Amino acid sequence: MTSSVDELVDPRSRRVAIAALLAGATLLGTTLAVDDGSAAFYAAGLSMAGVWITAYALAPSRARPARKRSADAAIGVIVGAAMFGVFVAGAWALTRVDVLGNAVDELLDTADSSRTGWVLALAGINAIAEELFFRGTLIDAVKRRFAFVAGLVPYVVTTFPSRNIALITAAVVMGTVLTALRVRTGALTAPVVTHLTWSALMIVLFPR
Fold first, then answer.
1. Less Cβ around it within 10 Å: N or C end of the chain?
2. H or E element in which residue 71 lies
């Protein structure tokens, strides 16, 4: 049985989480409205990451279990690489369907819209920021029995405005994996490293 202490949630966590989601939704709209690879695109992307990180810094967090970060990091690298393999295989199947193939091409165009180094930097910053907020702040803002829903559903919903089925599908798959890692380990190292590894491999090695 979950103890009453485990069920305590600081009201500030919920207020900060809701405010961050509203601000993030606004910035997402800005990101979708500007040209890929433009200065405005990077500014909006970095601003969104700033919102997630600020929310994580301001919201009270639950105590994390004592774990070896090196072991969790190794798990993250392995899972991230494995998920890259899953997405390569999945993309091969999706490209056989015109609508889905076009959605994948649209994502690749965004990734190729600027120098690889800049794209990697923005993706890396956002990967860390998203894990701190979606798998950190949001999960800590709800009772433990709602942890999986809190870590997954808002993450997927934020991709809806893109109207890109490939991006939404990726959010569902990766959101499930990342939230499972957070719930299973109780810490953020594994999901952060998984997200970083997967993002880097998708940008650099994903077949064009």
1. N
2. helix 69-94
**Residue 54 and residue 132: Cα distance in Å, rounded?**
10
What is this structure's pTM?
0.87
Q: What does 51-69 look like in DSSP terms, one character per residue?
A: HHHHHHHHS--PPPP---H
Counting runs of H as helices and runs of E as strands, what totals does the chain give? 10, 0
Query: Helix (H, G, I), strand (E, B), or coil: what is residue 206?
Result: coil
DSSP string across 7-19 = H---HHHHHHHHH
What is the mean pLDDT of each successive set of 10 residues along the chain, which is 208 residues long?
53 90 84 79 90 94 83 97 92 60 61 77 94 96 93 93 85 97 96 97 85
- Check residue 34 and give its pLDDT: 79
CB atoms within 10 A of CB 56: 24
What b/e sequence results for 167-193 when a residue is b if at least 16 CB atoms lie within 10 Å of its CB, and e otherwise?
A: bbbbbeebbebbbbbbbebbbbbbbbb
b/e burial code for range 122-155 (CB count within 10 A of at least 16 → b): bbbbbbbbbbbbbbbbbbbbbebeebbebbbbbb
d(CA 52, CA 98): 35
